[in-house]
Amino acid sequence: MKIIFATENEDKMREIREILGGPDAEILSMKEAGISVDVKEDGETFEENALLKARAAALHTDEIVLADDSGLEIDFLNREPGVHSARYMGKETPYSVKNQALLDRLEGVPKERRTARFVCAVAAVLKGGEPIVVRGTMEGYIGFEPKGENGFGYDPIFCLEAEGCSSAELSPEQKNAQSHRGKALRAMFAELEKRRR
C-alpha cells in the first residue's frame, strides 16, 4: 500500500513511520511525493481540518492520501488551544514559549482541575471512494513544569497518570503504543485494510 501523508512536519512523519512502518505500507510525505499545497485550516473540528488537508493533497495524486489534525484540549481553559494548537500564539512561536504560557494560565489551579487530552483526527481520501475519518485520544493532565526531552510540541507539559511522567519522558515505543496519533493511525490502517479485501 502506498500512502501520501499530507504534512511537511518532519517530527510528525518520523512518528507516523514508527507507528505504521513496515512491509505493508510505503509512506511518503508531501515533499517526497512532489506535492506542494497550502491549506487554510479553518475547520471548526479536528476532523474538518484533517479532511481539508487530505482533499487538497489528493487533487495532485492518484495514491491514497492521509492527513491528520491534532492538538491539545485543556478542560480548565475551555478546551484551548484545541484546533488552534499549532497556531496558538503564532505558528513561529517556539513550543517552549507556548508551553510556559499555558502553565502561566494554569498557575494556582490544582492537579484535579488540570485535566487535558491530546486529540488526533486522521482523514483518508481514496480515488473513487468515500473519505474515511477516525479519531484517537490520549487522556492526561497538565503538569506544573516542562519535563522530558523526547517528543515535541506540548509533550513536555502533558502528563500521564499511570506512568507518572510527561509524554516527553516516554520512549518513542511507549508513546506510540498509547498516543492519540498511534490510536488514530492504527484505526485508519485497519479501515484501509478492510477496503482492500
Give the terminus-to-terminus CA distance.
Answer: 12 Å
So what's the overall shape?
globular
The tally of strands reads 8
Helix and strand sequence: EHEHEEHEEEEHH
* Average pLDDT score: 92
Proportion of residues in helical segments: 25-40%
Low-confidence residue ranges: none
Would you tell me the structural class of the helices and strands?
Answer: alpha+beta
Radius of gyration over C-alpha positions, nearest whole angstrom: 17 Å
Q: Strand percentage, roughly?
A: 15-25%
Biggest sheet descriptor = 8 strands, mixed
Q: Would you spell out the secondary-structure blueprint of this structure?
A:
Layout: E1 2-5, H1 10-20, E2 26-29, H2 46-58, E3 64-74, E4 80-81, H3 95-105, E5 115-125, E6 132-142, E7 158-160, E8 165-166, H4 172-178, H5 180-196
Parallel strand pairs: 1-2, 1-3
Antiparallel strand pairs: 3-4, 3-5, 5-6, 6-7, 7-8
Helix pairs in contact: 4-5
How would you explain this protein's 3D organization?
It is a single chain. By secondary structure, the chain is α+β, with helices and mostly antiparallel strands. The chain has helices at residues 10-20, 46-58, 95-105, 172-178, 180-196, and strands spanning 2-5, 26-29, 64-74, 80-81, 115-125, 132-142, 158-160, 165-166. Strands 1, 2, 3, 4, 5, 6, 7 and 8 form an 8-stranded mixed sheet that branches.
Question: In short, what is this structure?
Answer:
This protein is an alpha+beta fold and 197 residues long.
Keywords:
eight-stranded mixed sheet; single chain; 8 strands; 5 helices; alpha+beta; globular; 197 residues
